[in-house]
Structure formats: C-alpha cells, structure tokens
Amino acid sequence: MKIIEGGITTAKSFKASALNSGVKKSGSDLALIYSEVPAIACGMFTQNRVQAAPVKVSRLHLKKITSQAIIVNSGNANCCTGKHGEDAALAMTEIAANKLGLEKEDILVASTGIIGIPLPIEKIKKSIPALVKNLSKAGGHSVAKAIMTTDKTVKELSCEIKIGKQSIRLGGIAKGAGMICPNMATMLCFITTDVHITRRALKLALKRAVGKSFNSISIDGETSTNDMVLVMANSAAGGDLIDRHKEDFEKFCHALEYLTSELAKKIVKDGEGATKFVEIMIKNAASNSGARRIAKKLANSILLKTALFGEDPNWGRIASAAGASGVKFNPHKLDIYIDQKRVLKDGTAVKVDKKELIDHFKKKNINITIDLKRGNRVYKVWTTDLSLDYIKLNAHYTT
Amino acid sequence: MKIIEGGITTAKSFKASALNSGVKKSGSDLALIYSEVPAIACGMFTQNRVQAAPVKVSRLHLKKITSQAIIVNSGNANCCTGKHGEDAALAMTEIAANKLGLEKEDILVASTGIIGIPLPIEKIKKSIPALVKNLSKAGGHSVAKAIMTTDKTVKELSCEIKIGKQSIRLGGIAKGAGMICPNMATMLCFITTDVHITRRALKLALKRAVGKSFNSISIDGETSTNDMVLVMANSAAGGDLIDRHKEDFEKFCHALEYLTSELAKKIVKDGEGATKFVEIMIKNAASNSGARRIAKKLANSILLKTALFGEDPNWGRIASAAGASGVKFNPHKLDIYIDQKRVLKDGTAVKVDKKELIDHFKKKNINITIDLKRGNRVYKVWTTDLSLDYIKLNAHYTT
Predict the structure, then answer these.
(1) Using 50, 70 and 90 to split pLDDT, how confident is the model at A10?
(2) Chain A 250-309, CB below 8 Å of chain B: which residues?
(3) Which of A66, A60, A123 is nearest to A95 (CA)?
C-alpha cells in the first residue's frame, strides 16, 4: 500500500466542487462529489433514534445499488425540521440530479450543523447549478474544507494498492470534532474508490473498517443525529470483480481500514479543545461487549478526562470509572497501567514514583491499559481529554 | 413536620465531635457520631464494583442489627489500598470501640478523598481518644464540616414530627459535590433519629427515601467507590414501636424523604463549579427504566451541560441526547419543553422567539421536560451545568 497525495478525487473518474451558498455567513458550506460513471455505493448511519432528514433520504436512495453523487451542506443539520426538512433534503437530490442528468435516487445527501433550524433550501437550490458547473479533479480539497464545522484541521487521505495488474486508489475525507462517541462517531466521512467490487463485498469491508475506526473513538460520549459514512466504488480502474471470498478482498479491506483508522485518529486529534490523544485498552475481558462498555465508560468519564487535561496522575478515577461501568469483574484482580507502568496490581495501589508518573501524564499521547484477567477479549478506544477550551467552544455554539 | 435548627445531634441521645488528625494539612478531617444507647442501624452503599475498605467493613458490621457510632475521615478514600486498607478501616472501628467501651461491630466507618493512597492510620489512631473525649451535643455542626472535601457549603438539616404523643426528631448531614450520579450519588450521608422503629421498617423507609433523592441526582455521571448513606434510630424519644404497616410509618417515611431530598438538592446546588440547578423530567415513558435511562443520558450529556453553562438555547442537544440513550421511542412524537415553553412538537421545531428562549436559559433554575407520549411512567433527575470551574477544580485534584 502506498500513501498518495489527495483525497476524495484521487480515484479515477471522480470530480468534486464546493462553494458558499449562504447557509454559513462565510466559507464554503455546500459541496458535491461526483462519479462520472455509476458507482456501487453503501453507507453506515447514526444509531441515534432522532435522525436528520438527509439520513432518511440517503438510506432510501441507497436502495438503488448504484449512486453517482453526494451533495452535502454544513452549517445546518436539517434535523427536527419536520416535513419541511424532508422536502428540503429531497429537493437537494432532485435539483442536483436534474443538473447532472441523473435520477434523484442516484444522489446521496448529508448535512451537519445546528439542529432545529429550518434549512434555507432556496439558497442551496440557487447554488446547485454553479456547484455542478465547477466540478473538477482539483475540487477535492475544497470539499474537505466545506464539510468542516468546529474542525480546525482538514481531514483527507488517499492511498493506492495493486490488485492484479491494476492500480486501485481509495480516497477519503471526514469531518468531526465534537459529539464524538462509539456507535458511529459523530461525523461525516465520504470515501471514493475506483475498485471493481460487488456490493456485498463493499458492505462487508465498510462494516469491518468502521468497527475498527469510527466506532472505536469517543471525544465526549455524544452520538449525533447526522452521522454517516458513505462509500462509492466506480470500478473505473478496471480489473476483475472482487467478491468476499477472494484474496484480493482482504487487500482492499486492509486499505479501507487504514483509511478509516487514519481519518478517525485525525478526528480525535482535532477533538474540540483536545490537548491529549489517549488510547484506552481493555485486556483479558470475559466478553467483547463488557470490554467495550468499560472502555466507553472510561473514554466518557468527565473526571478522568479532566484529570488527563490537568496532567494529574489521579488514576483512582480509572478504577472508579471501570467499577461504575456495570460490567462484572473481580476488583481484587484488577491491574491498571499508565503507558507501561503498572499503578494498580490485583486491586491494590503499587508504590510508584510520583514524579515519574506525572511525566507520563505530561506526554501528548497516553496509553491507559486495564487488565481484567477474566478472559481473552480485547477492546481499544481512542479518546481525548476534556479541556477548558472544550467548554468555551461548546458553551456558545448557537449564540 | 417542623424544620428545626441543627443536624446530626438534634435527635435525643446523640453526640458528636470532630478534629484535625493530620490526614488533611488543615481543617478537621476525622469525626465521630455517637448514640448513648444502641441504635437500630441500616445503610445503603455504592453500586461501584470497586469498593473502598470502609464500605466493606461497614457492610460487615451492619450484620449486627444495632450500631452505636460512626467514625469517618475525609482527605483519603482508603480505596485500592489492599490488605493494609482493610486493616486500617477495621482498626478505626476497634480503637473507637475500645475508647467507647463497645465492640468493634458497634461501630460503622466511612472515608472520602483520594483513591490509592495508603490511609495514615497511625495519625488517626492517635486522634481517637481526643475524638471520644470531645463528644458533645454541640459537636454536630463540626462533623458536618469535617466530612467536606471539595464541598463549598455545609449540608445539614433537621426536622421534627409528632407520632402519637411523642416528638420525633431526625437530623442529617451530607457531603458531595463531584462524582455524583444516580445509583447512589457519590456522597456520604449520615442520619440520626430518636424514633422507635423496627429494622425492617427503617430499611424500607431508607430505600424509598434514597430512591427519590440521592439516586435521582447527577452532577457528572460518576459513581464513587465510597458512597454510603447510614441511618441510626436509637428510640430515645420513646413511644410505640413503628412497623411497616402502621400509619405512623408513612409519617416517618415522609420526614425521612424530606430530609434526604433537601440534602440531595444541597449537593446538586453545591456541584463542583455549578452555576445552574436543572430539573430534568421524562414524562409519559413506556417504562421506569427507559425514563430513567433518558434522564440520566441528558443529565450526563457533556454537550447539553456546556450549553446550559453558556446559557445557549441549543435544545437540539436535548433531542440528540435523548435519541442516543438507547431507549426506544417514536421521534415523530417527541415533545421538548424548556420550563413551560414547548420548543419541539411531534419531532419538529416550534417557532419560538429566540430572545425569550435565551431568557429561560439565563435563569438559575431550569426545568427541561421531555414528553415521549408512549406510556404513563415519569422520572425526574436533578443536575447541574458543566462549567469552566468544574474543569479547573478537577484538573488538579491530587497535584
């Protein structure tokens, strides 16, 4: 696998464009990703029971196996907006389809921003012709920027693999910096690839990749109403059709997992106000679900996250959060490590040099490991600290 | 019911004292509550799987139906301290018993403070004789102060009821300001009463009262390793024995619930860095457990709590947190109210004057109501906002 420059338009026959439609006061807020040929498409969506209108429309349009474009706006989530919101999301696909000479079912739609404000659909409608007209290979980067809300960094990535004689490219962009929690991190992610693959295989590859990446991160325990990951595979690179049982499939999966993992890490590192990148590993658990619940409880513990921000080696909060997860384990067997340093052994504090411990907490990247000594299941989650800047950023989001 | 001045020593035949033993650098950190006669006792303890040594010892000593004293230290949780910790907690009861002319099983023990640091038991041992010597009626207030950690306000309360010809008194003290979440808010609470009651009845009354008070508050979603509520009823007021089926029992329950609710509210109002008192009510839920899960998800939502701090009327975060609770409901029937103002009706935003909405968020006390329109279950939780001061307070707790 080779990392290459670029993002959403590095794969063959993909173009993109972005502009300011007026949803946001300034900066681009409307974007289009387009495949010149029909692409096998699939998606994964938020688990939130309250789902935004674009989530509903994209789910519906994915009933058609191929898609050819994704239209996305930032600055407004188009959620809790009732019938008007659903009409608006549909209108976005209809007008884009009309301008591209396609059916509305060929277009997927996404939104991100504030909940409960009617989407200014007229502004968007007026901008779609220019959006279509400006489609280009060079437009990929501008789309990565247009989907940002509180993000501070552009998140895009691209890679190339060899399958048979063909060079296959995958590119991805993502947005997300807050409202991030396992079960689909709160975020948008779009992936394009020119691989020739069946839909079954693409679905499986996406499910695996998301499980190990976006579903294993948490910034604040929140799951948004608008999360989605969409992938379009347009087979423009040619070559044999890849199905689930072929060796080439594993190669493709590996590349897709690399892409989603790196984008997920970029989201965590860009976490609102984040000053730390924290890997939490639960080892030797009796079950995957138990390991996951403990990992999530730790990743979302306000007290632990503030201690991490303060570089305060108060690891008692790790033990307390694990115990409060509701998962059964023997507290007299519990071990806790900060990086490689064991601080708790069989439920009892280990005498540790405090200065040395503080040095671990002063690092940018911190590893917390819990060993339950009950089974052999492992679960890992990436998270951040909770800083003064997170509060400042989120205390005044709409005002 | 009459509110009277005082706290833990207003009921007949209770005395108390407190002093600085050196566990904390300054301020009192060791306290004793004593009944001159054996008292029916019972307790409720943390649900955390990691439990501090004093929790284990008090549970054990409650196997004896009567108790006569509670010894408690602040500044050190005596948790994750292994065999040494359990020996230390036992030693506290042994030495107090010895000085009071009692058995160690007559003494309950509690601790609050940092986890994972050996309890300096020698300092405590040396201080117990003075603690016993200083016992007095006037000592009640000093005990309420001695159990404080990050608390800014002393939490004590007392009331009187008439049962038959007897005047019955109940008094209580509590500590807690962070690590507060349903399932026994992270806190200590001690209640004394001179009522004449069976243990069965006392247990039931306590369970009811805690369910409606301490288990219905959340500051930060954390459940500590040291939580406990202990009650001693020494029958010094005389009168007929109260059992579960007597009318007088309901009278007593009502007074106890009043006491625990008021103490619980004091804890929330003293929440670390709290600037708001927020009541979250889930109405017309299909089940109690579902209502509770949604209430808890909202009370612990970092995004909602920061919006409350920022007085930002971003109620979309309420809808999003409810949807992410994992509880089934129909999002197209969801109503949300801020105080009496409906902002979401049947899943769709209601046009509201933004200035008026901001005025609601500027109030000290805010009521959030979610109407699920599915059944008739109701659950209420009291919580706070998440402020810059919370982070400042908790980022450097041990350092």
Answers:
(1) very high
(2) 300-303, 306-307, 309
(3) A123
Confidence tier at A182 by pLDDT (50, 70, 90) = very low
Tokens of A149: 């809300």
Percent of the residues in chain B that have a pLDDT greater than 90, as a whole number: 75
| pTM of this prediction exceeds 0.90 | no
Instruction: Give the catalytic positions of B in this structure.
Output: 186
> How buried is A348 (Cβ within 10 angstroms: 0-12 exposed, 13-18 middle, 19+ buried)?
middle
Q: Which residues contact A383 (CB under 8 A, 6 or more apart)?
A: A217, A218, A219, A268, A271, A278, A280, A298, A299, A300, A305
Cβ-nearest to B50 among A47, A320, A328: A320
Q: Name which of B117, B60, B52, B48 is nearest B93 in CA terms.
A: B60
Query: What are residue B74's DSSP bridge partners?
Result: B112
Instruction: List the single best residue of A50, A304, A374, A385 to mutate versus B (max B Cβ within 10 A).
Output: A50
Is pLDDT at A181 greater than 70 in this prediction?
no
Question: CA B334, B338, B339 angle in degrees (round to 5)?
Answer: 125
In this structure, the number of other CB atoms found within 10 A of the CB of residue B63 comes to: 7
Catalytic residue among A186, A225, A383, A384: A186
Distance CA A51, CA A61 (A): 16
Q: Tokens 């800083």 — which residue?
A: A387
Per-residue exposure over A112-148, b if at least 16 CB sit within 10 Å of its own CB, e if not: bbbbbbebebeebbebbeebbebbeeebbbbbbbbbb
H helix and E strand count, chain B: 11, 16
Handedness of CA A248, A252, A257, A259 (dihedral sign): positive
- Helix (H) / strand (E) containing B166: strand B166-175
The pair of structure tokens assigned to A142 is: 């501008």
- Check if B218 contacts A (Cβ < 8 Å): no
Q: What is the ipTM of this complex?
A: 0.81
Which tokens hold the place of A56? 């509903």
pLDDT averaged over every residue in chain A: 92
Cβ–Cβ below 8 Å for A307 and B397 = yes
**Record: contact B225-A319, CB cut-off 8 A:** yes
What is the nearest CA distance from B125 to chain A, expressed in angstroms?
22
Give B103-123 as a DSSP string: -GGGEEEEEEEESSS---HHH
Task: Choose the closest CB to A80 out of B179, B349, B388.
Answer: B349
A with B: how many residue pairs have Cβ under 8 Å apart?
229
Question: Got the DSSP string for A269-308?
Answer: HT-TT---EEEEEEEEES-HHHHHHHHHHHHT-HHHHHHH
Question: Closest-CA residue in chain A for B80?
Answer: A348
Mutate to test the interface with B, among A306, A334, A387 (most CBs of B within 10 A): A306
Residue B163 CA to residue A10 CA, distance in Å, equals 82
Facing residue for A310 by CB, picked from B178, B306, B396: B396
A349 Cβ under 8 Å from any chain B Cβ: yes
For chain B, where are the alpha helices, taking DSSP H only? 53-61, 82-100, 121-133, 140-146, 199-211, 247-269, 288-299, 302-309, 316-323, 354-362, 388-395
* pLDDT (0 to 100) of residue B272: 77
